[in-house]
Amino acid sequence: MAPQKSAKRKVAPLPMNARSGQAKSDTQANPLFERRPRHFGIGQSIQPKRDLTRFVKWPKYVRLQRQRKILRMRLKVPPAVNQFSQTLDRNTAVQLFKLLAKYRPETDQEKKTRLNAQAEKVAAGQQADTAKQLVVKHGINHITNLV
């Protein structure tokens, strides 16, 4: 067996914050103000109010606009598609709509009259005009496929 050391051990010094507590106790406390610590266990002091806004069931439109904002921050959108997320001012929009009106797809009525005229030409023995019309492409899925 190894020889035993002396039974006396040195006590560790107090931490800095405990030392400052001793100095405070030297000054006398006002007897009119008693210190009553609160205990938040079951059946004891009432717990302090907490901010519970994060756990509120928000209306659907609020949830949607928050989700939309986060998605827009996280998603990478190609520039060709992203240009449609910004709107034009009124004057430019009016000019654009005038231009697009010239390239509007034909209505069912116009198509019917065009096909009737084409059928009459073929019946008369003339060459039918089969030139492809210039038309603005529309629809989100169609445009994204084109891009």
Short précis:
The chain contains six helices and no strands. The protein is mostly helical and 147 residues long.
How would you characterize the overall build of this protein?
- The protein contains 6 helices and no strands.
- It is an all-alpha fold.
- The longest helix has 17 residues, at 108-124.
- The chain is rod-shaped and about 125 Å long.
Brief descriptors of the model:
mainly alpha, 6 helices
Task: Outline the secondary-structure elements.
Elements: H1 16-26, H2 60-74, H3 79-82, H4 90-102, H5 108-124, H6 140-146
Helix amount, in percent? Answer: 40-55%
Radius of gyration: 41 Å
User: Structural class, judged by helices and strands?
Assistant: mainly alpha
Topology as a string of helices (H) and strands (E):
HHHHHH
* Beta-strand share of residues: under 5%
Q: Count of DSSP helices?
A: 6
User: Largest beta sheet, briefly?
Assistant: none
